[in-house]
Amino acid sequence: MAEHTSSSITIEAAPADVMGVIADFARYPEWTGEVKEAEVLATDAEGRAERVRLLLDAGAIKDDHTLAYTWTGGNEVSWTLVKSQMLRALDGSYSLVPLDGGRTEVTYRLTVDVKIPMLGMIKRKAEKVIIDRALAGLKKRVESHPSQPKG
C-alpha cells in the first residue's frame, strides 16, 4: 500500500461552509492555484459531484485527469483516480471535525503516484506542497467568503 501524506488546518467557519467550498468544483481555479479547469461530469442523487475532470498545472506535473468522489455524510469526501495522462494514482480525502466557536479542523490526506519514475522523498515533498497550498487556499477562500454573518 502506498504511503500517504496528510496535514490539518483550523478554519474559522462551520463544517457546512467549508464543505460548501470543497464541493464547488467550478470555483477551484479561483483558489487552488494548480487547478486551471474543473468540469463536473456526473452527480449523485443529492447533486454532489461523483466524477470531475480537472486540468492541473502544478509546475513539474501538468495533467488532465478524472477523479471519482465519494461523500460520507456532511463532513468527509474522498476521491480516487479514474483516468490520467501522467498519474498512476491520486487518492485523497478531506475530513472535517467541528470545533468550539464555529470553527472546523480540516485534515487533507493525499497519495500521488506518477507514471514517470520519481524518488519517494521527492514524491512526498510534492504531496506536502500540494496539501499545504490546498489547505491554505481553502482557509483563505472560506474565511473571505462567509456564507452567513457570524454571531
Shape estimate: globular
How many whole angstroms does the radius of gyration measure?
A: 15 Å
Which sequence of strands runs across the widest sheet? 1-7-6-5-4-3-2
Give the mean pLDDT. 86
Determine the N-to-C terminus distance: 45 Å
User: What profile does the largest beta sheet have?
Assistant: 7 strands, antiparallel
Q: Which structural class do the helices and strands define?
A: alpha+beta
- Kindly state the number of beta strands: 7
- Specify the helix fraction band: 10-25%
Report the uncertain regions. Answer: none
So how many helices? 3
**Secondary-structure element order, as H and E?**
EHHEEEEEEH
Q: Which strand-content bin applies to the residues?
A: over 45%
Can you tag this structure with a few keywords?
151 residues, alpha+beta, seven-stranded antiparallel beta sheet, 47% strand
What this model shows, in words?
With 151 residues, the chain is of the alpha+beta class. Helix content is 25%, strand content 47%. It has three helices and seven strands, in the order βααββββββα. A seven-stranded antiparallel sheet has the order 1-7-6-5-4-3-2, covered by helices on one side. β3 and β4 form a beta hairpin. α1 crosses α3. The longest helix is centred in the C-terminal third of the chain and has 25 residues. It starts with a strand and ends in a 7-residue tail after the last helix. The relative contact order is 0.24.
